[in-house]
Amino acid sequence: MKATIIDVRTVEEFKQSSVQGSLNIPVQEIVQHAEEIKNMEGPIIFCCKSGHRSGLATDYFKGLGVDCSNGGSWLDLM
Hints:
The protein has three helices and four strands, in the order βαβαβαβ. It is α/β, with parallel strands linked by helices. It has one domain: 3-Layer(aba) Sandwich (Oxidized Rhodanese, domain 1), CATH 3.40.250.10.
């Protein structure tokens, strides 16, 4: 099963460099995309610069019953 990687860094950070094939949904906008994310085929891996923002997103979506995990830094997923 292929995982979906969602990078929750800002658009500017994402444009500088990112994991190939990852999606960019900034953490500030994550709640507005909840239905879209809940309907994605899992598992979902959230990442950011250090793992903090992706941890917030992971906790939120696990609370909604989404199969997801905190991938930490996007550099660790390269």
